[in-house]
Amino acid sequence: MSRPVRVAPIGVALLGCGTVGREVLRLLTEQSGELAARVGVAVRLVGVAVRRPQRHPEVPAELLTTDTVELINRDGVDVVIEVIGGVEPARSLLLAALRAGRGVVTANKALLAECGPELYAAADATGADLYFEAAVAGAIPLLRPLRESLAGDRITRVTGIVNGTTNFILSAMDSSGAGYGETLAEVSRLGYAEADPTADVEGYDAAAKAAILASLAFHTRVTSADVYREGIAEVSAADILAARELGRTVKLLAICERVADSAGTEGVSARVYPAMIPRSHPLATVGEAYNAVFVEADAAGALMFYGQGAGGPPTASAVLGDLVAVARNRVAGGYGPRESAYADLPIRPMGDTLTSYHLSLEVLDRPGVLAQVAQVFAEHEVSIMVVRQTGRALDQALPSNAGPSNAGPSNAGPAGAGANLVIVTHLAPDAALRSTVDKLAGLDVVRDVVSVMRVEGEVK
Amino acid sequence: MSRPVRVAPIGVALLGCGTVGREVLRLLTEQSGELAARVGVAVRLVGVAVRRPQRHPEVPAELLTTDTVELINRDGVDVVIEVIGGVEPARSLLLAALRAGRGVVTANKALLAECGPELYAAADATGADLYFEAAVAGAIPLLRPLRESLAGDRITRVTGIVNGTTNFILSAMDSSGAGYGETLAEVSRLGYAEADPTADVEGYDAAAKAAILASLAFHTRVTSADVYREGIAEVSAADILAARELGRTVKLLAICERVADSAGTEGVSARVYPAMIPRSHPLATVGEAYNAVFVEADAAGALMFYGQGAGGPPTASAVLGDLVAVARNRVAGGYGPRESAYADLPIRPMGDTLTSYHLSLEVLDRPGVLAQVAQVFAEHEVSIMVVRQTGRALDQALPSNAGPSNAGPSNAGPAGAGANLVIVTHLAPDAALRSTVDKLAGLDVVRDVVSVMRVEGEVK
């Protein structure tokens, strides 16, 4: 096989120069010798497109431009790096770049999750490369392993902590026992949350990443709209406490799962919600703003990838890694792996997805309560795994030799006080579980639903 | 950019059919549809070379051959997968394959660590691909991230638990408090150690992996012979107990570090030895036979990769991932990243490497002992970070207002009993630390050196 020889430098156009862009600029300059050695030819920055050039004294004036389209199409540009963020104008610009045959490196998760298929199609039409390692979990090398290293295996499940802000909040709640509102305020004060934290705390950011992960893991086009989503704003100090009492901790999880229906037809479930996981699970020890992704595959078994999920330098590191890959492909005259959507699995609705619930109920402390509660579960064909109670109701409601073996000791409360029932279910369709909770909340004997949360990661 | 179109299947020759080979065979068959979708053309097994065909009823007879060289050179072979292991004949066979322009996928760490440069050169001469993800840490996607994802970053240190057998033994010793010999016997009985465990317990296996990791991380040719090596056979129950008392645990670490001497000249330190790490370190929770590699890079920060480091299916998963990459390169007419040894850093000898020691000494319980011990450290220009004692010697030897602030409470032993001194040093050249220990062991006041072990991972 003869190898083509290229001596012209690889020309790079940088779109955007915010937190990540400045770090990319720094690494391009500081690592220029290393980059040349790794790529085989020099890597040369052709221009930097920004909206307000006067705000960027750190960029040599002759490189700055406000005419992004002209920069993309300028002679000598091989690779376009996009760190603008958001859907437009990033979408139009990257489509123009791909149509012009430029390789594209982007850190834009929102764009990928919403318009991935359109971008892939444009890349395919000209054979241009489209790389986006930085879009999920910052510097953690995750997308490349998923789409390359595990390419000969069958991934069954991806479970990730992919949003640093929410992990920081939940870790702090777990340590302090404080409530959500109070903790968010403190985390904002420390600069770990955006001024408008909606995208993080409502799970939109995690859902975009789940869409990208599910697409790669299952060779199926999954967009943000396909991802079921709940944020952490409803997580209470009571939930955290309940988790702790069960040897669990609460994490906002992005879950991408290969599922089969009763007829054996495969589908994809992609979902984001806070869930209780055992403290012995590798994801449970991921603290502060760290990210980690737990991958299960048929042959490889369980893998975990851990690191910093955000921040200028880690994101820039991932961008540079992609730049080297695209540049190498250019030098070699080839291109990287393309989109792989051949499996084209159907998206399974959340209601049909099998999950397990933890419930903590405050009930009247009188005979017959457990029987009524159990009856509601039975009506919805939901099987109970564990019941634990404090207060007298449970013992009085059941013959003494028929109590569930997992029931905890009975601590009689003060006269007139309610009893507390903690229930963990077996796997059941999520819709059935939600109906069960709604029906329970309406029972006369249930004073309050103290905590409801899904349970994940019980079986390795 | 026009894209070449290939319709002929990718032909695969499998050399060896042991534990890993059988799993590769199974995945090639079971995943043939998926592989074709991922590669773009069918992947076809051309032949399987084994020494004793009659022992392989699981392989279709028409595929079996004993003539390995003929199989490698057979028409239609694009990729050679080597899972024979050991240096020869694997080395000669893979050199023949690369010279014939075949892509090579191998899981052979011993071969890579010993003859890597020779194989790389052969691959370069014909532009053939040489992939070996399975050679280090089984299914954990590690080499590809190191040589591709972090290609735009500067790796400063790689610290890995890369041998499952020794991690299993040390984890068991940590749980049970039992000694090394007893634990090895139990682990062997359970089938977690080879009949001859020398390569594992003496650190040869980990050293081979350290050589591969250091080569990739630092763009420098590092072979097994360059790696300083100590195994775990000397780790005692006393060491494990001492670590536990200091909030640490003992792990066999493969450490690859970018170091600078006093003149600022960069070099590479590659070493394998048991060390104490804090229980809060991400590597401390890696139990049983799992592997994990902790990577530190300038921009990316701290990353960790975790998973099963050995076993047929995980290793086969990594082999298949490489096969898909090489096959894709063939279909695209390109090739993957080449060896990168441009940095060519010198290997730093162990004696010059800065390390920190933990020592536990049984000393005579009488005044002046600490002064004598401290004098030995001073003579070797080794600075002490912490001293802790049980017994009376320390307090009596020092004026009451001059004791080190970290000294623990004094528990007076029974009359005539020795005192115990626990010392942790600051970083110092390893040779100076070893001389210090030798000198201490010869002091009249030192009854016994109970435990000596390096300390790692103190600073994140």
Please, could you describe this protein's structure?
The structure is a homodimer of 460-residue chains. Chain A has 15 helices and 17 strands. With 460 residues, chain A is α/β, with parallel strands linked by helices. Chain A has three domains: 10-139 and 313-332, Rossmann fold (3-Layer(aba) Sandwich); 143-307, Dihydrodipicolinate Reductase, domain 2, CATH 3.30.360; 351-455, ACT domain (Alpha-Beta Plaits, 2-Layer Sandwich). In chain A, the strands form two sheets. In chain A, strands 7, 8, 9, 10, 11, 12, 13, 14, 15, 16 and 17 form an eleven-stranded mixed sheet that branches. The first copy, chain A, is elongated and about 85 Å long. The two termini of chain A are 46 Å apart. The model of chain A is unreliable at 393-415 (pLDDT under 50). Strand 12 (301-308) of chain A pairs antiparallel with strand 12 (301-308) of chain B.
Strand content of chain A: 15-25%
Number of spatially distinct domains of chain A: 3
Q: Fraction of residues of chain A in helices?
A: 25-40%
Q: Name the CATH class of the largest domain in chain A.
A: Alpha Beta
Number of strands of chain A: 17
- Kindly report the oligomeric state of this protein: homodimer
Residue-averaged pLDDT of chain A, rounded? 88
**CATH evolutionary superfamily of the largest domain in chain A:** Dihydrodipicolinate Reductase, domain 2
